[in-house]
Design brief:
mainly beta, Porin, 2 domains, 16-stranded antiparallel barrel, two-stranded antiparallel ribbon
């Protein structure tokens, strides 16, 4: 800002300096925001009296710029230049799930009928109270838990319908919904090379967790490692990031310390999770980003039992389960003309602590999750033409050893088509088929899940 204002001040007195030296001062005319040089006959030849020396005038302008900036800084601390920016997005769609009549998964999903759905309703509250300072809160408004089902042997549907006691008729009812806090953090930026952030933040890894939100994602279908949270989607802790520019290249980093994957809102142990990301980005006609991400942490849960049998209060605490985990991934995104390429690979290892019972599984009652090693990969190729239409192909492979509940190998090919009506309105559609195979068990299965989804996306 200082250099910009100094340049304006410098340009403002250069015509006077030229006139003091006996040069003609042209008077430009403006037509459609373009300066037009008039002919010599249209220019007034004016001789201005000699002014102060050049160095004196430069010093005066610099001093004036310092006074203006100092006054603005003081005013900014007392009264922010802007209060709270509100923006967000929402999407609504039509979808259908296709399963064979004899598929055992038929009863697991809420519905196989064609249905309208309200997807995301996300609102951002963004403030910048002073230079280098920022806070951001993102919330998602949902209709849940109303209508959701519990994954237990005896399925039960949640009903949040209650009578509206404030209704004048005395018999109206409402179904209350829930709010998901996607992120809530504050940060201070020292420079482009260092910003320190604290709060609830999306884990900085790969492409999908960083390109957050339906408007900026190409595919409606999320990768399996994103759905299963091979790396937790969001964490509570501190996060430092920055980048260094070398011409068209941008070398950046993320480093964070957090509670890790917790079963509650607080950490049950003193172990803290560590994570990092390193990326190289190229800007220009061809844009690409290549990155590496890593995560290491622990997770556990406890059970407590109150004891009053001896006449005094006592608590028996038992470690239910505990494990160590790590994940590592690489990612590549390329934008060249209308072509867009996205691909990622990720490894996830979970090992339960010796002597601790493993975490309950999704199989029959009493089943537990084993130590496991999961491999994930996907590739997406899209092409946007006529600035509005974007077909794409998506392929994903997942291998988990040993398998739990479902099979160990899953292959998901998919086709999609996006239409960009306006910068604030999009239509996204996608058809996918997931093929499940059991390569380690004695009875290989051939379960197939097919789905058709669409989302009308609005940005506000």
């Amino acid at each position: 800002m200082k250099n910009h204002r100094f340049l304006i001040g410098l340009l403002s007195f250069l015509p006077g300096l030229a006139r003091a030296q006996g040069e003609p001062a042209p008077v430009p005319s403006v037509t459609n925001q373009t300066a037009v040089n008039p002919s010599a006959k249209e220019v007034d030849q004016v001789e201005a009296p000699a002014g102060p020396p050049l160095d004196t005038r430069l010093d005066a302008i610099e001093q004036r710029m310092k006074e203006v900036e100092s006054a603005e800084a003081e005013a900014g601390h007392a009264t922010p230049a802007r209060a709270i920016d509100l923006y967000g997005f929402m999407d609504v769609g039509l979808q259908r799930l296709f399963l064979d009549s004899g598929d055992p998964l038929n009863g697991v999903y809420p519905t196989r009928a064609t249905t309208f759905v309200l997807g995301n309703v996300n609102l951002y509250l963004d403030t910048r109270p002073g230079p280098g300072w920022r806070t951001l809160i993102e919330t998602r408004f949902t209709l849940y838990p109303n209508g959701s089902e519990s994954f237990t042997p005896n399925y039960q549907r949640v009903n949040t319908s209650v009578y509206d006691s404030s209704d004048p008729n005395g018999r109206a009812h409402v179904s209350w919904g829930g709010v998901v806090i996607e992120r809530a953090w504050g940060e201070w930026s020292y420079s482009q090379a260092l910003t320190i952030q604290a709060g609830l933040f999306p884990s900085p890894y790969g492409i999908w967790n960083i390109d957050h939100g339906t408007p900026v994602l190409i595919s409606l279908l999320l990768p399996a490692f994103q759905v299963e949270e091979a790396i937790p989607a969001r964490l509570v802790g501190v996060h430092a990031y920055g980048s260094f520019v070398f011409g068209a290249l941008d070398l950046g980093y993320h480093v964070y310390l957090s509670n890790g994957r917790t079963m509650t809102n607080v950490d049950l142990t003193d172990d803290k999770a560590l994570g990092a990301r390193l990326f190289l980005r190229h800007s220009g006609a061809t844009r690409f980003t290549v990155g590496m991400s890593g995560y290491w942490g622990t997770s556990s849960d406890d059970t407590k039992q109150l004891d009053f049998s001896s006449g005094s209060f006592g608590v028996t605490e038992t470690r239910a389960w505990a494990y160590h985990e790590w994940a590592a991934g690489v990612d590549l995104s390329v934008d060249w003309g209308g072509w867009r390429l996205r691909t990622e690979a990720l490894l996830h290892r979970v090992k339960y602590d010796a002597g601790a019972q493993n975490e309950p599984g999704l199989g029959p009652p009493g089943s537990v999750l084993p130590n496991r090693f999961a491999h994930y990969w996907y590739g997406l190729l899209a092409h946007r033409f006529a600035r509005r239409f974007e077909p794409y192909v998506y392929v994903e492979i997942q291998y988990v050893s040993p398998p739990d509940f479902l099979d160990d190998f899953v292959c998901t090919p998919s086709l999609g088509f996006n239409i960009y009506f306006k910068p604030w309105a999009q239509l996204k559609t996608q058809y996918s088929s997931s093929y499940f195979f059991n390569t380690e068990g004695p009875n290989p299965s051939n379960v197939t899940i097919r789905s058709l989804a669409s989302r009308l996306v609005f940005v506000f």
